[in-house]
Fold this protein.
Amino acid sequence: MLVNADFHVHSCFSSASSKDMLIRNMAPKSKLKGLQLLGTGDAFHPSWLDIIAESTNYSGDGIYTTDGMDFVLTAEVEGKSRIHHLIIIPDIDIARELSDKLVSKNKHTDGRPRTAYTGAELLDMVRDYDCLIGPAHAFTPWTGMYKSYNSIYDCYGDKPDFVELGLSADTFMADTVSELKDFPFLTNSDAHSPWPHRLGREFNALELEDISYSSIKNSIKNKKIKANYGLVPNLGKYHMTACTKCYKIINPEIARENKMKCECGGRIKKGVDFRISEIADYDKPKHPNFRPKYVHLMPLAELIATVLDKGVTTKTVQNRWQKLINAFGTEIDVLINVPLDEIRKIDFTIAQIIESFRNGDIDVVPGGGGQYGKILFDNFVKEKKTTKTVTLDNF
């Protein structure tokens, strides 16, 4: 069976997360998105584990179910050098035991615990409990593994189970790094709120025998991921080297000469694009035979909001999103599967931009420094009263 899964999210206990990030909200929103399997996030936080136990029924073999949605226990841990690691956990008893063992001053106050463990120490600890582990958003400049290491083996000592690409990278970029040819890639949302434009904004299609921890482990270990879905990496907020204050995109060499200080006084952060170029072995990606397709997409509500030039959570945008969901069932189906002619009958303008994504012919002003990129509308007119030309000079 083919299952859409998003393994990396956060609960209401994580800093900067919505207080609505609760199981009772995540389940129905994930179904509207088109996901069948969702990570719980924050599975080392004792109070969150209590909520999971109270809010779900245990289906067996590591799966917790409510309102027709299946969850598997996952956690993100901040280790030494502020490197983030994603862990997939067999069941709630193991999560509690690992939480008790984890030395962290904030594990009772923040869903993402901070520790002094190296990647190798974390790998050894969780492997003893049959967990899966890999670097979270591996290339990002603040907390990605490759910000501190030139090799994944220098971080973990041994081979971890997967590499999470993050919003600012994709398969085409990562497969220029030769040491990653043996790793399955995961694409996950890192969602901090239950809105469908956050949950599943990146997700994986996995071949599973059934929805169980054993089958998830088998799928990842044996490279049975059939597709990765995610943002065009240029849209990621750390794709290009840029100032974190004014968001100006800056040539990395000039940034180095200026000691990573922008003329506005802000701090410049190295972009994922440049960091990958530093560690790349190939000018063009070399995909291993098992590597699945990578499909670029963007959350439907964000597409609508961009066309209408309105906030993504406004009533106007949400009503238009809901009309498409009512017609076709799930957001993922609208973005990927529903014939364009059918979408045009409901919303001609949105069908145009979906077609552009499917054909891979959108133009993007890249993001960087913490600001997401923006789509350029060359092929169709935005639905707003005034037309604003967006060029690179604006950034």
Notes: Residues 384-395 have pLDDT under 50 and may be disordered.
